[in-house]
Amino acid sequence: MLSKVKHAACAAAAVLSFSSVAAANTIVDIAASDDRFTTLVAAVQAAGLAETLQGPGPFTVYAPVNDAFAALPEGTVETLLKPENKDQLTNVLLYHVDDRKLTAEMIPSGSNYFKPVLASERLCISKTSEGVSIADGTGNSANVVIADIKADNGVIHVVDKVLLPGTRPDCH
User: Fold this and answer.
1) pTM of this prediction?
2) Residues 6 or more apart from 1 whose CB is under 8 A from it?
3) Half-sphere exposure of 68 (CA within 13 A, CB side)
4) Taken in order 3, 8, 9, 11, is the CA torsion positive or negative?
5) pLDDT tens, 118-170?
6) DSSP 145-167
7) Is residue 166 situated within a structural domain?
8) I need a surface site. Which of 37, 43, 68, 172 has the fewest CB within 10 A?
9) Element (H, E) at 97
10) Which residues are CB-contacts of 82 (< 8 A; sequence separation ≥ 6)?
11) CATH classification at residue 41
């Protein structure tokens, strides 16, 4: 009888520790634990979006690596991180988020418009045998360099460029 109680207690402890680990696997938690995303995490926090992206989702985040932010014109990141530019920073970040869970497998072949959370804008996502690229409002494209990092509340696709809103990209 005592061994059954011990076994049940161990099983309960295992379930509790597993559930606490699983609960800490949001998009924000994954990005915060990866040194490639320190600039993105700082931007998400400055924009006040961390709590939202830790919510239930689902979300797809096209997550630029630090090198992508470093490639922006000098001073851009520092300017966006200033409190008076929070709205502009928020728009740039929301351009990287879809309110659905879109794995690479779910992205259709060819070029298609996708509506990010920044609803006034569109992205053109192209999928070929060579990979997935995303054209933004500046006419430039980011490449998905790592696809399908799964989180409890969605999926992350790592991109090599910061996506910037602007005019609707050509999607043909």
Assistant:
1) 0.83
2) none
3) 23
4) positive
5) 888 899 999 999 999 999 999 899 999 999 999 999 999 999 999 999 888 88
6) EEEEEEETTEEEEEESS-----S
7) no
8) 172
9) strand 97-98
10) none
11) 2.30.180.10
